């Protein structure tokens, strides 16, 4: 008697997600900006956040262009350094 798992396999889950939300859902983000008073990843799927850079930006009421530009510049420096260029 063979044991079969009741949960769907990974490819089945990805195919179902692509069918429901479109193929763009399957791309993994490289940068995640989290706004809010507390850094939490509640609500983000673990397979999308497993290899992305996560920056806590603080409360949304204090968001501004300068903070966003500084964070993007920091991310670009770290990414270039990580890839060796």
Largest sheet: 2 strands, parallel
Weakly predicted, low-confidence segments: 1-6
Helical percentage = 40-55%
- Please give the alpha-carbon distance between the first and last residues: 54 Å
Count of beta strands = 2
How many alpha or pi helices? 3
Cα Rg: 18 Å
Strand order of the largest sheet: 1-2
Note the overall shape: globular
Order of helices and strands: HEHEH
Mean pLDDT over the full residue set: 76
Q: What portion of residues belong to β-strands?
A: 5-15%
Please, could you describe this protein's structure?
- This protein has 85 residues and is of the alpha+beta class.
- It has a domain at 28-83.
- The chain contains 3 helices and 2 strands; from the N terminus they run αβαβα.
- A two-stranded parallel ribbon has the order 1-2.
- Helix 2 links the parallel strand 1 (31-35) and strand 2 (53-58).
- The protein is globular, with a radius of gyration of 18 Å.
- The termini are far apart.
- Residues 1-6 have low confidence and may be disordered.
SSE inventory with pairings:
Blueprint: H1 10-21, E1 31-35, H2 46-49, E2 53-58, H3 65-83
Parallel strand pairs: 1-2
Q: Could you list some keywords that capture this structure?
A:
85 residues, alpha+beta, 2 strands, globular, single chain, 3 helices, two-stranded parallel sheet
Briefly characterize the structure.
This protein has 85 residues and is α+β, with helices and mostly antiparallel strands.
